[in-house]
Design a protein that fits this description.
about 375 residues, alpha/beta, Arginase, Chain A, 8-stranded parallel sheet, 10 strands, binds zinc ion
Length: about 375
């Protein structure tokens, strides 16, 4: 790897991690969604961050602070199209109460992008599970601010690992589309900040394929995107995440998709990490790492269908930490709310414990 661990040693249990989170991210409250024609309670509940915070606060190894400033629109527009950013701002500002579900999805390529109008939101949306509320834009912008500020802390050399509790999540949002509970792509925004210091690798361990992140960096030779996810033949987002998708043009070879069937256990997942993910990262030699961390791979998750156990997340965190790279962990999915906090804490503590033995060189 480009930045190898140094010999500096610290006590592993005293090592702390910066966490970025703003409570106004909770104001976005989607209430329900449609799954196979049925109206169900929305899985991306506003109770998710609270469970994570409670678990982190209990072990006193995390320093939780809000992002210092709002993310400028210009920063959002480095990753997303100005049309999407402005449309979301205006459309959410139009909503007084309740939730709005786009229900007209045009075949868009022959149309002019609409500047406003809730009825036209389907132009920018890829599914029927991602409603707009009065607070969706503001909450998504704060979630993005957590990820970008985390990236900046790495760039400044002030931290060598940061956890962005970004909610709503981001990895399904493309440059000009929201969907999959995601509005802005937090990991992609962070990668576009981190690339100032050199190549960036993104490893997406959410159960679902990170179609948005893949699309944003599809032709980009400087950002590696690696994703382990449920087979798209069977699982959302269905239209991307196949093994044959490897990038295009100068970005050919910097996308790696590892689709797996339902029922994957710790051992099978470990094999993919060791045989495919770690070698790909070592070959790419990035300057920094982003982990798109979804926990819907847990065995009891109501959405994902892998069978990973809670202790295994400590091993995963340990493995990523031992790559010796400045690392930003960005929250993605994970929908069994009662276990989500423990799974996140276990992952981050596994990471911290490994870092306690070998501190990576900071970016500055
Ligand atoms: Zn997911």
């Amino acid at each position: 790897m480009s930045s190898r661990p140094t010999a500096r040693r610290t006590s592993s249990r005293s090592r702390r991690m910066r966490v970025l989170y703003h409570r106004d991210q909770l104001r976005h409250r989607p209430r329900f969604e449609w799954v196979s024609g049925k109206r169900v309670e929305h899985f991306e509940r506003s109770s998710r961050p609270g469970r994570i915070l409670t678990a982190l606060e209990r072990c006193h190894r995390f320093e939780i602070t809000p992002p210092k400033k709002p993310l400028p629109m210009a920063e959002l527009e480095r990753t997303h199209t100005p049309e999407l950013v402005r449309f979301l701002r205006r459309a959410c500002g139009q909503i007084r109460e309740g939730t709005y579900y786009p229900n007209v999805f045009p075949k868009r390529y022959s149309l002019t992008a609409p500047a406003e109008g809730l009825a036209r939101a389907g132009f920018y949306c890829l599914d029927a599970g991602t409603p707009l509320t009065r607070w969706s834009y503001d909450a998504a912008r704060l979630a993005a601010a957590c990820a970008v500020e985390g990236a900046q802390l790495l760039l400044d050399g002030r931290e060598s690992e940061v956890y962005a509790l970004s909610r709503p999540p981001g990895h399904h949002a493309e440059a000009d589309l929201f969907g999959g509970y995601c509005y802005f792509n937090n990991a992609a925004l962070a990668a576009n900040r981190l690339r100032a210091a050199g190549r960036v690798a993104i490893v997406d361990i959410d159960f679902h394929h990170g179609n948005g992140t893949q699309a944003i960096f599809w032709k980009d030779p400087d950002v590696l995107f690696v994703s382990i996810h449920g087979r798209p033949e069977d699982f959302y987002p269905y239209f991307s995440g196949y093994a044959g998708e490897t990038g295009e043009g100068r970005g050919k070879g910097t996308t790696l998709n590892l689709p797996m069937p339902a029922g994957v256990d710790d051992a099978a997942y470990r094999r993919q990490i060791e045989r495919r993910v770690v070698p790909a990262l070592q070959a790419f030699a990035p300057r920094s790492l982003i982990v798109s961390a979804g926990f819907d791979t847990w065995l009891g998750d109501p959405v994902g269908e892998f069978d990973l156990t809670t202790p295994f997340y400590a091993e995963l965190g340990d493995r990523f930490a031992r790559l010796g790279l400045p690392t930003l962990v960005v929250q993605e999915g994970g929908y069994q709310v009662s276990q989500l906090g423990e799974n996140v804490r276990t992952f981050l503590e596994g990471f911290l414990d490994a870092r306690g033995d070998s501190t990576p060189r900071r970016m500055k």
